[in-house]
C-alpha cells in the first residue's frame, strides 16, 4: 500500500459506527488520540458504611500494634537469646538462633507497619481523583497559601485527625521504631574511657609466643626478626571467657633494630632504648586508625604497614605515622629481660591502644 493510500485524504467524512462515536476527517488530522478522561468515581464500602470504616480503622490499628510487638520482641530476642545458640532448619542447615529471631521479629514489624499504611490509604484516605493543570512554578504569596491549604486538606482527607485510634497507634509505633537500633548500638561494647586504657600487660608479665605458648627470650629475637607476643596471663583459666576481648587489646609485635637505625630526636631515641632490651622493642599490634591488626613488616625500612587502609608506621622513629589516615604513633610497650633471659613487661602501655577516641586526652 502506497503512502497516498495511507493519507487522510481518503478517509470518509466520518469513521466509526454505533457505539464507537464519530471521528471526522479534520479531527483525525488534528488529534488522532482522544483524551478518554477520568473513569467515573466509584465509592468504596468504607465511604458509604460508617461501620465498615470503623472496622477498617481497627484493622489498621491492629497492624500497627503488631509492628510494635515485633519491635519490642526484637529487643527481648537480642537480650535473652545467646549469640552462640543455633537451630537446625530443614533445607537451610544450622542457623544462628539470635539472628533468626531478630530477623523474624523485625521482618514482621516492618511488614505490619507497611501493610497498615497501605490498608489505611486504600480504605480510609480520600481517593477522589483530582486534576491540576501544569503552570509555571512561582513562589508568590498566592502559591504559598495554596500549598498550605492543600497540605491541610491532605491531612483532613487522610483522616489523621478523624480516626484517633489510628493516630495514636501509629505515633506509638513510630516512637518504638528507633528502640532496636538504640538497643543494638548500646551493646557494641563498653565505653572506651576505661576499656582501652588498660590491658593485661603489667610489671613482670612475660611475652609469650602465641603459637608455642612459650616465653620469648631475648636471644631468640635477631635483627630483622618480627615476632608476635601475648601476655602470659591471657592463657590463664580466669581469662577464658575474655580471651578474645583481651587479645584484641594486648597483642604486640616484637622487633629488633640496630642502634644506628634509630631516627628522631635524642629524646625519642633514649626512650626507645630505655624501653627495650638490646634493640628489642615491642609495639601494639592494633592500628591507631580503626583498630585493624598491623603485621606487614618491611625489614629494610623498618616500616610497619596496616593492610586495611595502608597506614604506615616507622618503628625506627618511635612508631611514628609516615603515611595513611592513622592519627598517632603505635603505642610502645616498655620491656626488660628477667633473670632467665625472658622478655617481660615493665608496665602496661603508657597510652591507650587502638583507635583514637574523643576521651583519649
Automatic annotation (TrEMBL):
Cellular location(s): Cell membrane
Protein's name according to its UniProt entry: Cytochrome bc1 complex Rieske iron-sulfur subunit
Regions that span the bilayer: 60-81, 101-121
Alphabetized PROSITE patterns for the sequence: RIESKE
Organism: Catenulispora yoronensis
Job of this protein: Iron-sulfur subunit of the cytochrome bc1 complex, an essential component of the respiratory electron transport chain required for ATP synthesis. The bc1 complex catalyzes the oxidation of menaquinol and the reduction of cytochrome c in the respiratory chain. The bc1 complex operates through a Q-cycle mechanism that couples electron transfer to generation of the proton gradient that drives ATP synthesis.
InterPro entries found in the cross-reference section: QcrA_N, Rieske_2Fe-2S, Rieske_2Fe-2S_sf, Rieske_Fe-S_prot, Rieske_Fe-S_prot_C
Keyword line: 2Fe-2S, Cell membrane, Disulfide bond, Electron transport, Iron, Iron-sulfur, Membrane, Metal-binding, Oxidoreductase, Respiratory chain, Transmembrane, Transmembrane helix, Transport
Membrane topology according to the record: Multi-pass membrane protein
PANTHER family found in the cross-reference section: CYTOCHROME B-C1 COMPLEX SUBUNIT RIESKE, MITOCHONDRIAL
